[in-house]
Amino acid sequence: MSESDQSAAYASIHKELIDACKEGSRSAQFRIYELYYKAMYNSALRITGDPDDAEDVMQEAFLKAFQKLDSYSGKVSFGAWLKKIVINKSLDFIRLKKTTVSLDELGKDNEPVDNQTEEIVLKCEPEVVKKAIYALPEGYRIVLSLFLLEGYDHDEISSIMGITNATSRTQYHRAKKKLLELLKDMNAVS
Predict the structure, then answer these.
(1) Per the count of CB atoms within 10 A, which of 3, 36, 80, 186 is most buried?
(2) d(CA 62, CA 36)
(3) DSSP state, 77?
């Protein structure tokens, strides 16, 4: 599929709903909300780590999306465009709450990669892994979530978070190591 075909495909998905939203249709906005609520909430929750905060962030993200709908060009899927807004709102929320040291200050040294972490995590119950992820320090949780769960690469994460690529990689590796420690503490792995 060529790039222009791909852009056309992205633009046509839910096009009628998006056009109706642009015209101010509340029912179309509610339908878009219904279609994307759960995925966007989960993205916000993985970053904020708190259900109430995730709900607040998600609501603000939908409001912003509906206000800025004219800027949606259709070059990417609507879901991808909306997810970027949710992630940016989540990170803005975290920054407002943050009173600790920055990720750049934490991530100066490199640590070896532990390739066994993913294999161990896959053997654990999903709820236990989710609980361990929420227990990670904020910076670790954000980078791990953006990389593993949202599918961003380190260049994109560094751009989104305003950190260096090396810091993103270091935080990711430290997050995996800390996640494994937490899972061991929870007796989820031996």
Answers:
(1) 36
(2) 10
(3) -
Angle at 159 (CA atoms; ends 40, 50), nearest 5 degrees: 35
Walk along the chain (190 residues) and give the pLDDT tens digit of each residue. Answer: 555 554 454 455 578 888 898 898 999 999 999 999 999 999 999 888 889 999 999 999 999 999 999 898 888 888 889 999 999 899 888 877 764 334 344 444 444 444 555 555 556 677 888 888 888 888 888 888 888 888 888 888 888 888 888 888 999 999 888 988 888 887 755 5
Residue 129 CB partners (closer than 8 Å, separation 6+): 121, 179, 183, 188
Please name the amino acid found at residue 36: Y
CA 139/CA 38 separation, integer angstroms: 23
Hey, what domains does the chain have and what are their CATH numbers?
Answer: 3-97 (1.10.1740.10), 103-185 (1.10.10.10)
**Do residues 183 and 120 lie in contact, with contact meaning Cβ atoms separated by under 8 Å?**
yes
